Amino acid sequence: MKQFLDGLNHQVVSFSASGANSPADKNKNKGGRGQKKPVFEPYMAYEDVCHGLKRGELIHGQLRINPKKYHEAFIPSPDDTRDIFLDGIVARNRALNGDVVVVQILPQEQWKVVRSDTDCEGASESETQKEHVVQRAQKKTERAPSPDVIVEDQCSDQDEIVSKKISDTGTVKKNSTKVSKSSLDFSSSFVYQVVYIVEKKHSRAATGFLKFLPDKPFAMFSPVDHRVPRINVPLADCPENFRSRSGDYTNTLFICRITNWPADSNFAEGHLAKTLGQAGEIEPETEGILTEYDVDFSEFSDEVLDCLPKNLPWTIPPEELRERRDLRTECIFTIDPATARDLDDALSCKQLPDGNFEVGVHIADVSYFVEQDNTLDAVASQRATSVYMVQKVIPMLPRLLCEELCSLNPLTDRLTFSVIWKITPEGKILDEWFGRSVIRSCVKLSYDHAQSMIEAPEKMFPAEELPPVDPVHSIDEIHQAVLNLHSIAKNLRAQRFSGGALRLDQLKLSFTLDKETMMPQGCYVYQYRDSNKLVEEFMLLANIATAHHIYRKFPELALLRRHPPPKTKMVDELQELCDQLGIDIDLSSAGALHKSLNTTLGDDEYTSARKEVLTHMCSRPMQMALYFCTGGLKEEKLFKHYALNVPLYTHFTSPIRRYADIIVHRLLASSLRLSTEEVQKQSSHCNDKKTISKRVQELSSELFFGVFVKECGPLDSEAMVMGVLDQSFDVLVLRYGVQKRIYCKSIAGLDTFHHRRVGKKSELTLLWTPEDLENPPIEQIISIFTLVEVQLKADGAPMKYSAALKRPEDSRS
């Protein structure tokens, strides 16, 4: 709490200056003759917020707004076991998604209890069919799937599970007793309202469309993201002929920035920042995504580029070579996606006379080129991560570093940080060495190359089947090293999972693009194979070893990565649902969940699909993994990584694309000149940017899939029901790994439908109009795990597509 209050003190100056929480906000809203009645409550004074937090009367947290039902918002409870529900836009008090806010319970006379008329199984933002405390009695509509989907990168670092944040609102009795504010019980759901915005993490930028309003001095901007309010934009900001030819701009996408949101208006005020182009086209849509999520995609300035070596081609200075372990004659190679250009990790493996192995993980020494506190470092720390989109990468560092000086390109001397183990064939570590080194990769292998070597252990690979190889090392030597690494990795992996680790793999969509137009030509579900697992195991091993190493050396300064356990109440509810469905799932620990997902299910096609749906269900209670500074978190038990089931973990293996890894490298080199508070602040920033990066990546994939459906659809696929509501159901489209909601009222050929619920089990009965009207309707039961046939087809709106349920075959015919 003290750390948060210190941060609050740091923030107050900037936010008072912007008018977000200024005392003037209170004065403006006092009312009076000729003034509009306030829509929103005035913000509390800073001093009152500090006192309220200290006394436990107020709660702070990061706001999450449901993107498909934007009246619903949540912040985590103080103990992080459940979520606090904020109902309606007024309750959010002008805060936007991602903002750090302070909330308080409203007076009890403002509480109302309404019963939701929705039912949901396996697909809801929170468990439905409960009594929810709400601020006003408004009809509840269908709940959308979890709004915040954070998919941790598995293909490069492969360290985290696929995670989702999902919420539950809890219940409260109608005859609630008076609440003592000094001892709030967060296990019940009261009515909360935002009273202060600590940090505006939302960019206040939005993509959307302009609408002309006759007799008004402004136009109405409607954001595509409904979590952002509509914005009044001065006509002077609009295109020159907008007043006379507004219809020409119906399909034009704009970027608008919010400059103010008065307390007496439902609408924000803002200005147009840019005309992007036609909605539905990839580049305008992509630029809109990047701008909205505040991703810096500008070219690097001359001042930044001046920090890079001038004399090219660059060679390693002799004095630097003398300070490093020389590994240039070793058989070291990279394994990456075929299209990768930023190669930041390499592997080596040689058998020792005693039958054990010397295994090395060699990581690009980015910190050699990125000196702390120079302009390049400042920009890299602000970007914090590279952002990978379908058609391009927004790099954290200039391309000269990413693709040349730091990239472990073959047949080139490169500076590295290495961790080298003496390890038994079974995977037991006997010895460990950390240090700065210099390597010369002998070949750039793709995952396909390595997979071919694993699948053909006896094959003599001809040179033409592989990329250029350093003549110092034979193809057979490289092949044998890959096989040895694969063998050790299998043992390491088996030990990890038998020791209680968890991995939740979800279907990941990949695209093939036209090289000239960069338009999607095809798409497929990415296959995670043994070559991926090989790299994953040694990156995990290196990250775990590094975490222990830097924590021993710098117990107050180490930058680590923790993964909190899933939210308890949601796990209990999921366990109850699985028990009722007759599914033998043990959610008591990460290891128990992994074992039950991978041993109690069969391997036929139906079971494989059911496992995908179960994986989605089990991912919902999971929380995000977070960077943190050990000096800022006093309880060591909180350092644990739940999914990996290890006490200490960090990121060391991708410094070209993650700034957190650069800090870790500086710790390894004992050259970090930062305080605990500064490391914690950078950790928090890296968390924000990583979340944004993943969301942008997801939106890019959705954009390209929408284009693919439009250009190549309609697309037929088998799908499995993931969740059932009272008037709709969610499906996982198995061929493409996408989730869609199907609304019963929009199903062509459906005569009627009805819904029933037994306990937590929800079921829809669909009655189809028979082709021969003399026959009775065809009945189709929709419940969780039902297999159906769907067709994906483009909608009228740009980039949008829907899933249409195909008519079941009539068993009577």
UniProtKB/TrEMBL annotation:
For this protein, the Enzyme Commission number is 3.1.13.-
Its required cofactor(s), as named, are: Mg(2+); Mn(2+)
Q: Which SUPFAM superfamilies match?
A: Nucleic acid-binding proteins
Record-annotated site: Important for catalytic activity = D344
- Could you state one GO cellular component term attached to this entry? P-body
Where does this chain mainly localize?
A: cytoplasm
Listed binding positions for Mg(2+) are D336, D345
Task: Please tell me whether the keyword Cytoplasm is annotated for this protein.
Answer: yes
Q: Which PANTHER family match?
A: DIS3-LIKE EXONUCLEASE 2, RIBONUCLEASE
What protein name applies here?
A: DIS3-like exonuclease 2
Native organism is Stegastes partitus (bicolor damselfish)
Upper lineage: Eukaryota, Metazoa, Chordata, Craniata, Vertebrata
Q: Gene that codes for this?
A: dis3l2
